[in-house]
Amino acid sequence: MATSLVLYSTLLAFSPFSFSQNLLTNPGFENGTSGWTLAGDTSAQFTESGGRSGSRLAHWSSSSSYTAETKQTVTGLAAGTYRLSAHTVGGETAGAWLRAYCDGQNFSTPIPSSPWGSWAKVTVDNIQVTGNSCEVGITTEDSEWTSIDDVALELVSSSGGSEIVIQENAAGFCGVDGSIDNNHAGFTGSGFANTNNSLGASVDYSVDSDYATSATLDFRFASASSRPANIEINGSVAGTVNFNSTGSWASWANESIAVALRAGENTIRLVSQTADGLPNVDSLTVVGNGLNPGACNPVPDSCTGMDGDGDSLLSCSGEPAVCLLGGGVGSYRVTMRFDARYSGGLEVFAESRRRMFTSPQQNTSADRCADFLVDVRDPEGEPYQSDHGTSGLNLRITKGSVALTALSADPVTGPKTLFIAGDSTVADQLPQRYAPAESRYTGWGQFIPTYFGNDISVSNYADSGEGTAAFRTDGGGLWNKINARLKSGDWVMIQLGHNDKTTPASLYRSRITNMVNAIRSKGANPILITPMIRNAGDPLSAQHIWGDLNIRNELIGVANVQNVPLIDLMKLSSEWAERIGRSAAQAYFVDNDRTHSNEVGADLFAQMIISEIRQQNIDISDYLRNP
Ligand code: GCU
Ligand code: CA
Ligand code: CA
Question: Looking at ligand 1, which atom is closest to the CA of residue 178?
């Protein structure tokens, strides 16, 4: 399986002492007291020469009944921890302070006496700023006096805006395959999550993010043995946390990982990689920007509108359950109901290993329903395949079949359809159940249906070994198949190039342009996609260039000239591989194959495409399943 991948992550800056510049105006009083506000006994505040350099501020209160203040309000501060410092000389021991007043809180340090000629540095540490402004300055009272120079306010560490701590049974905590215990000392909150000792045992959380961002997940845990775990974000593995032994169940430690979060609700799932289960988990701290605890049932598909009679359960058997629903070629609406008492994940595939639905652990008070449209073809997978698959509609429920209480499948005519034109890296490859998931050839077209809701059907005509020739509008066999079904309002994604190694640039350009025109002439919508990289170590600029044909440049060119939405998967995947390194990236491809993705790779590329659809706000985003 995938190893520690940090998707789109840039580590947030939390280094403890990355001092930035002084944020004060006229900090050394070289311009007198300009920039500073004098208050109280102002007759006793003035600048004079003899500072550490240039001028200094002479500051006292002229009698025991007066207070003197020199202060400055600083605005535009990032949330975080700050340090205020000043150099002082002279002074007495009681009644003089360096202070900061931020967000209703006072932070101060007394100014000690120091002999004339010997400047001492006074600091106020650990000033917490949560708003964006602070008042800082010097106060003297009761006839105390001192001279001050070189005042500085510096950012020590930025908190990046927000940090949320999710405790067991509090907002954002969505469940544990096990129990909440409190029998080992040292936990925070009301206890800790203790999973069953089994492979795949999990703890689930939900975090709501104001925008797509990177965040650091910091787990506080204890374990008498090492218990490595996968982190799944929104249903996909995003990395691994080692959870090394802390020595005993009462010794707590922290391990963290950077992950990418999307805008809106995110499911965060910690899944045990071994039969020992997870360590005991005390809390999860999420550090990033614009974060809040999320809701625990982020896909609240309602059961009230469930179509059909739900009585097709008898078509299912085995574990994972296989449901053979019969019927002929065409589109079907499938609706499934899962029992509320079930608290594991859900995952459903249809036809030739197309993933139709996935959802993290359920923890609901009501039943959970899911529905989606399935496009049944013959052959059910790649159009030019000799293995036709299983005739009729078939489902495979890889997670949650024990909780299935109702199942309906009803034919629908003429649903909105997303067609896909592509090659083996896109195709509905065979199930290959004899091979482990990491060695199964899998096209992104097999995982992209997961991300669409119940009012669009995905029909994937990608086929191994095919290029623009098969999709020529003047006689391409696969174009003819799409064109026979294409209607107004439909969508066509095109990712072609891996198999155009002998196509001249001008021919490639005209074939793509012709497809775009033919799609539009039917009132349908094209989307161009540059092919994902081959993981052979080449930079983006050297990917997919055959003779005079530079696939990426041609697609960008057609997109510009024809004003077609373009998803630059080549660039996204190139940046991703550079970020995690070529050998880590290879875990997303089949064994040593540089070209073909396995299941996690197909899902990753599908997610890159989906996230671009959202970011570019391409109209098909209306059909995405709500996160
Ligand atoms: C012990 C310990 C538990 C822990 C368990 C485990 O029983 O008391 O808190 O969860 O071991 O091995 O997971
Ligand atoms: Ca346990
Ligand atoms: Ca706790």
Answer: 10
Closest alpha carbon to 274 in 202, 347, 184, 218: 202
User: Average per-residue pLDDT in the chain?
Assistant: 88
Token duo for residue 479:
């174009």
Distance CA 275, CA 109 (A): 54
At residue 341, the pLDDT reads 80
Q: How far is the CA of 292 from the centre of ligand 3 (A)?
A: 18
> How far is residue 83 CA from its own chain's centroid?
33
Which of 280, 281, 282 maximizes ligand 1 atoms within 8 Å of its Cβ, making it the mutation to test the pocket?
280
User: Residue 363: what pLDDT?
Assistant: 60
Instruction: Determine the 3-state secondary structure of 616 from DSSP.
Output: helix
In the chain, what is the straight-line distance between the N-terminal and C-terminal CA atoms, in Å? 25
Ligand 3 (single-atom ion) residues, CB below 5 Å: 167, 187-189, 282-283
Minimum mean pLDDT range among 14-28, 461-475, 559-573: 14-28
Q: Which residues line ligand 1 (CB under 6 A)?
A: 181, 184, 194, 197, 249, 277, 280
User: What is the mean predicted confidence (pLDDT) over 325-336?
Assistant: 93
In b/e form, how buried is each residue of 564-601, taking b as 16+ CB within 10 angstroms? bbbbbbbbbbbebbeebeeebbbbbbbeeeebbbbbbb
Ligand 1 atom closest to Cα of residue 225: 12
